[in-house]
Design brief:
Number of helices: 13
CATH topology of the largest domain: Hypothetical protein af1432
Shape: globular
Radius of gyration: 19 Å
Largest sheet: 2 strands, antiparallel
Structural class: mainly alpha
Number of strands: 2
CATH architecture of the largest domain: Orthogonal Bundle
CATH superfamily of the largest domain: Hypothetical protein af1432
CATH class of the largest domain: Mainly Alpha
Mean pLDDT: 84
Amino acid sequence: MLRPNLLRFSSSSWIPATRWCPLLRSAPSPSTATFWRPTGLATGTSLQKRMLHGPPKPSPPRVFPPLYTSTGDEGQDKLAFFHVLERLKTQKRTGWVEHGIPNVESISDHMYRMSVLAMCVSDTNLDVGKCVMMAVVHDIAEAHVGDISPREGIPKAEKRRLEAEAMHNFVHDMLHDSPAAQRFEALWKEYEEGQTPEAKFVKDLDRIEMALQASEYERTYAATNLQTFYDTSIPNINHSEVREWAQDLIEERKREGRGKIDDSKE
């Protein structure tokens, strides 16, 4: 029996119909309009257990919310931006969902640990304050487009276009090109271009954070299908100190008998 205004995803997971597709609302607000993503399978189901040890499942079609239309009122538009940021707290990281992990981390969970890792670095040649801010900002466009995974088949050029379009919407329509907006944009562009020492370092934090999370999901859920998260991250780390952290993680994983990592550069 269907519940009013709810759509069924799995045996014990219900999603509000208005979160399934923005088209079901006549006038979606910036704080509630969202794309549909699965919330994860119920812990302990036989389907989930198979997924924790098998190949990733395909992602459902992604539905993007409309871009925000400025009201012309700076205070109202800024408040709309504050509400949009909530999506970073609620949207789950897609790769883990595809691999059947329950209780998946959010986008903001990922960025928060990166920012703390940035504060742990001892490299005096880096602007640590900038690295912390860049870690917090680097995935901010995903508040609109979501965490697009390679398995979704969206070309990289299209992904970059969608994210740039979202950033333009944030910077100009919501934040009215204010000094704060310019700071967001500059940090995001610097990370995307990946040319400065800080941008390269934060990219390495993105890699090590993903490997750390894979290790924790292996421990928590006994998942055996997460090797790809190591193989696509640790071998590509360049910063010497982050490579030391990665080596410590490799040794820890070996001691616990959880797979092995090809640490050679591509």
